[in-house]
Amino acid sequence: MKVGTVIQVRSFSEYLVKAPLEECDGYVAASSVPVGTYVSIKSAQGSIIGIVTGVQHDIKEEYLPFLSEEKREVFIPYVNDYRSSYLIIKGIGNVQDGKVFQSLSFAPVVNDVAEMMSRDSVRAFHMPNGKPSFSYYRKLSSGLDPAIMSAIIDRLAEAIPESRPMLAALKKYTERQA
After folding, report:
1. Strand segments (E) across the chain
2. Local structure of 32: helix, strand or coil
3. pLDDT at 128
4. Residues 112, 41: contact at Cβ < 8 Å?
5. pLDDT at 82
6. How far apart are CA 14 and CA 28, in angstroms?
């Protein structure tokens, strides 16, 4: 199911995705996309795998008085579109030509579509050689709140049930880091 479209690439590994508040045109409602959800963003080079790490509703009000009406739409896409949510996606890897990489070699561009990953897709991404791999954990955990990391670990445990004991230990470790 589609989550939304990329409206901003903040960095090589962080993207802002516009998501509707209600289900429509094949898109799920933003409220149906919890933190920790794995997403795939289709791009010209392949897919970018990412995780929803936050939601944003924000209008940069301090700039509004200085912009003409037509400039507001160009520079502040949030002003006239208060009926949308913006999901913050953290990129964790790529899938290119059927090969899984738990590191980024390319990023999405504006208007690329983000879709929720199925359990099988999450499983395939984390078990490229038949063994569980969560190699992006250290890098990801250093920049995120432990509660968000716990949600990510929970979603992963749903996709790889045979790794639940290892993931439970990792979750406990993560929660102690708070």
Report:
1. 2-11, 14-20, 38-42, 47-56, 84-96, 99-101, 113-116
2. helix
3. 87
4. yes
5. 46
6. 21
Backbone torsion region of residue 155, taken as left when φ is above 0, otherwise alpha when ψ lies between -120 and 50, otherwise beta:
alpha
Give the span between the Cα atoms of 147 and 49, in whole angstroms.
21
> What are the pLDDT digits (tens) for 42-90?
999 999 999 999 987 655 556 556 666 666 665 555 555 545 688 999 9
Which of these, 111, 77, 145, 151, lies nearest to 2 by C-alpha position? 111
b vs e for 34-55, b when ≥16 Cβ sit within 10 Å of the residue's Cβ? ebbbbbbbebeebbbbbbbbee
Work out the number of other CB atoms within 10 angstroms of the CB of residue 112.
18
pLDDT along the chain (178 residues), means of 10: 93 93 83 92 95 77 62 56 77 94 94 95 92 91 92 95 94 88
User: What residues contact residue 34 under an 8 Å CB cut-off, 6+ apart?
Assistant: 52, 151
pTM > 0.90: yes or no: no
Question: What is the distance, to the nearest Å, from the Cα of residue 131 to the centroid of all Cα atoms in its chain?
Answer: 24
